[in-house]
Amino acid sequence: MKPPAPGRGDELGTGPAGIALLHIERARAGCGEWDNVREWAAAMTCDPVIADPAVCGLYRGAPAVAFTLHTADQPAYTDVLTVLDGHVATITGHRLAHAHARIKNGRFPELREFDLISGLTGIGAYLLHRHGGGEQLRDVLAYLVRLTEPLTVDGETFPGWWCGSAAGGEPSQRWPGGHGNLGLAHGIAGPLALLATAMRRGITVAGQAEAMDRICCWLEQWRCGTGANAWWPGMISQAERRGGTVQQPGPQRPSWCYGTPGMARAQQLAALAVGDPQRQRHAEEALAGCVADDKQLSLLGDASLCHGWAGLLLSTWRAAADADDGGKLAGLVPRLQEGLEYRLRQHGLPVGDGLLEGAAGVLLAQHTTASNASASSGWDACLLLNG
């Protein structure tokens, strides 16, 4: 992988910021060169790094670059991280003020207000990864608690995270009345995973456990099937919400971003945080059933981290490390490793070098799961899988 032409360096999902994570993890694990890290860090910062609160999030701009440089844990990056911390603090304060004003005015949120990729959940994941706590992280957690409180619009009560538009942020004839997003990347499973991960590390705010329970109860409401046959839709329509019934015919692809793996991992983390063995068992059974189901696996169209084999593998590997299931999930990990390897033999690495849909994410998932130990750099904190 050679650095591309400048212009997209501070993109974590598609640009050099994400690719640098691969070289950082390899260097920290002793199987890569720090010269490669420096080369990609230079590509990441060759153009001015965006610090506009309107567009920045964990996967773009100052937070993305800061996440990556912090992951390297190198003294050479101390000064630039101090500068970036100031920008991230400003971005966080601006985003929180905007979100609280929106709630006060009784309006629906946009996904990018709260999600992992672009919103405050992603910024919170960075603050936890970078500082291990702090007042701004607590402010983000307090906002997420408030997000889970019911929202009344035009006399009708919705979950606080209900979006009045389609997933892309624009009104759509396919989603009249908006939607409720369940996914880990863009939906309410992301805030759940952050709230749970923070609690597991001893970081709590008022109402945190209750907020997690509200999210879990909503996910349980929309669970289809039970035990090993359980699955979740990625999004709930207004018609489904009003009717109380999922109208989708069956499981979607088993992806990290929108599928059962990401949602099951988030619920497992929540159960571990509050000590709920029944909820933990339900999450682990659903994930094991998904992994063992050839019909669901056949829906995976590529090897990628976001929505392919690599994301399923990493999600399952992380969940297996925390599972209380007699080793069932751990026993399924080799099946997924073989599935990913087969996919790569047949089709090669994904086109593009990026983290979420490209080669870097696949190689990171392979490296991390093959080592059977926690990632040296903690790189997958940006996926909220590491608990």
UniProtKB/TrEMBL annotation:
InterPro entries in the cross-refs: LanC, LANC-like
Gene3D superfamilies cross-referenced by the UniProt entry: 1.50.10.20
One of the Pfam families matching this protein, by short name: LANC_like
Protein name: Lanthionine synthetase C family protein
UniProt source species: Streptosporangium longisporum
